[in-house]
Amino acid sequence: MSSQSVPSASDDVVPGLKARKLAMLAIDDFLVRSQPIDDSFEKLAAGPDGAGLEPRDRALARAIVMVATRRLGTIGSALTSRMERGLPKHSGRLESILVTAAAQLLYLDVPDHAAVDLGIRLVHEDPEGRRFVKFANAVLRSVARERDDILAADDPLGRDTPEWLRTRWIKRYGEAQARKIASAHMSEPSVDITTRDNPAEWAEKLDAIVLPTGSLRLRARTDIADLPGYNSGAWWVQDAAAALPVRLLAPQPGEMIADLCAAPGGKTAQLAAAGAHVTAVDRSAKRLERLHDNMTRLGLHAEIVTADATKFRGGPFDAILLDAPCSATGTIRRHPDVAWTKTDDDLGRLMALQARLLDHAVNLLKVGGRLIYCTCSLEPEEGEEQIEALLKRCDHITRARFDRSDMIALGSELAGAINAQGELRTLPFMLPADESRLAGLDGFFAARLIRT
After folding, report:
1. Which single residue of 6, 19, 209, 312 could bond 307 by disulfide (Cβ 3.0 to 4.6 Å)?
2. 192-451 architecture in CATH?
3. Distance CA 301, CA 401 (A)
4. Tens-place pLDDT, residues 388-412
5. In sequence order, which residues have a C-beta less than 8 Å from that of residue 227 and are 6 or more positions away?
6. What is the pTM of this model?
7. What does the alpha-carbon distance between residue 269 and residue 236 come to, in Å, rounded to a whole number?
8. What is the spatial distance between Cα 165 and Cα 161, in angstroms, rounded to a whole number?
9. Distance of CA 82 to the CA centre of its chain
10. For the chain, what percentages of helix, strand and coil (3-state, to nearest 5) are there?
11. What is the distance between the alpha carbons of residues 257 and 320, in angstroms, rounded to a whole number?
12. To 5 degrees, how large is the angle CA 93–CA 94–CA 97?
């Protein structure tokens, strides 16, 4: 059967078509409306477009979405270079369909004929795009035919990193490290978990690696909710880097600790599991519902407060954890859409909010109380420069450097993660491993401060 004359059929009749359509719709939300990929995919998968999908097909759809976003620069270049006059105007969802199909042709173990034929079926289904069937067929077959040449020109920093980030990272970290950061972003991220206790025992039960930081890293891809200990609340999913700020805060039983901007609650769980009396504050009631559900599953308790953290009244606290809203460029491994939906212009607004949060948090501390400020950002304006600015404008706060004992807690593999000022700065290529999927961690910044 020719791909140019595909008969109409329902998504349920044609094997694999519904999975491709789900992926395409999520990609379309991202390309056209700049919707976060995770939110869009979960919403679509829970609706009619995901109804009846087998777990295997849903996993395939998600894999397509993630690799399409992660490799958007290369895919876009491969497609546009094969369009003599560019993408046709008024072509409906044609761009999203082509990206969906090209992602499979270039990066997934999908037969060429399946990727092309199912892509063409999606073009046929689109009222505005169906007149470009021959065009789409020619472009996709060209991508399939020249796949080796396209992949040989692989350049994660030059093609799959937006210019605004590429320029910033080269300036901040140098070209060699910027390339290592970009390359780390191209790999599927690991699944890390934090246990309430007995990490070695749970590593054996879950077929996981015990990382030097104390987190566990799952070896196998699996449904998290089906694993031992999930329903009993023995552990929770949390990137290894995201678990470090609480480890460095070293919460003690009975301490009064505020977790500002707390949702979705991984750090709140760490604090509560250590025996602290935790007040979890976030402005999003919806996100706090998820935090509440997680704490219930884990059998842990925290006082949950829906409030703007810049206006929250409480304390004075023995310690405060401030995981401030940020550009999230340290999480691009997990959320590749961040690279394409955020811009340099977002930083100014976020930096102003971070400064307000820091100023307010300092005043909620007891004298002698400690504050951990952290962001999942690679940008110095949201990390190192925020702390320098705070110390200049606030005379009752001092920096408490992370030292050798803190490094022992982190593990020697992260020796390079403590900067000259005694602050934590993890980069995505740290924690190497033989298998790329088991390597790396999120980019994080953390500093420890004391109210004097």
Report:
1. 312
2. 3-Layer(aba) Sandwich (3.40)
3. 31
4. 999 999 999 999 999 877 877 777 7
5. 206
6. 0.92
7. 8
8. 7
9. 32
10. 50, 15, 40
11. 5
12. 85
